Amino acid sequence: MPDTTLPGGIYRIWLSPDHYYIGRATSFKRRWATHLWHFRRGSHANAYAQNCYNLYATFKPEVLEALPTEEHQIAEQKWLDLCLAQPGCVNLEPSSEGRKAGWHHSEETRRMMSESRQGHVHSVDTKARISAAHTGKVLSEEHRQKMRINSSNRRHSPETKLKIGQSATGRLHSEMAKLKIGQARQGQTHTDEAKLKMRGRRVSAETRALIAQNQTGSAWVCKVGERPKRVHAADLPRYLEAGWERGRNAR
Questions:
Q1: Considering the entire predicted model, what is its pTM?
Q2: Distance CA 46, CA 91 (A)
Q3: Which residues is 218 bridged to in the sheet?
Q4: Alpha helices, DSSP H, located in 42-123
Q5: pLDDT digits over 141-162, tens only?
Q6: In 3D, which of 3, 19, 174, 13 has the Cα closest to residue 89?
Q7: Residues 6+ apart with CB under 8 A from 68
Q8: All domains of the chain, ordered by start, with CATH?
Q9: For residues 26 and 69, is the Cβ–Cβ distance under 8 A?
Q10: How far is 210 from 150, CA to CA, in rounded Å?
């Protein structure tokens, strides 16, 4: 902890080697203690800063400027203008006056924040920390319901659909992936509402043509104790060597 006998002013708190928070205080010691108390409880008002602390468990404050109280706001605004659009700054407010009810970022500020983060790629270590932070996390039923509602109202744009289709073209699941998918679907049943929607669904002529095209050059194989499956002609010899038979009914 830096020397806390200094007067108040502008400070910076490093939350990782690359992320920091800018603030002002009349008493550095009290303000830093308040920040650390909230970080440890997971209740910090700045969710971005809280996530950084959760990942890196780092809290290294430093004094940027020691100033009289009447100069704090102007000095903080100077530092915010300098740092907010730069990578690593986790401050959410562009104004030293703080957020007011109904306040929103301007389009210019949003653009600057977006541009500052474009091309940013997490390191392997950061990805591992993010994964570890989410491992074992259980979402509440209320949270799950909100996610369902948001997903049900979401519609991909034609451009996004095209990108998804292009990325999936030619991609084949591994045998292990197929096994996991099958296990996940075992015992799964459709709701009455879903069944009703499926009965009323009509496949377009274009979709039927695509299905027929995809099935060309494939064959059904079966095996005792296994569900029949359609495989590509190129994969047929491998299945036959593994004891599968052509057709849909095992003998």
A1: 0.42
A2: 8
A3: 232
A4: 47-56, 72-83, 107-117
A5: 888 888 888 777 778 888 888 8
A6: 19
A7: 7
A8: 9-97+105-117 (3.40.1440.10), 204-251 (no CATH)
A9: yes
A10: 30
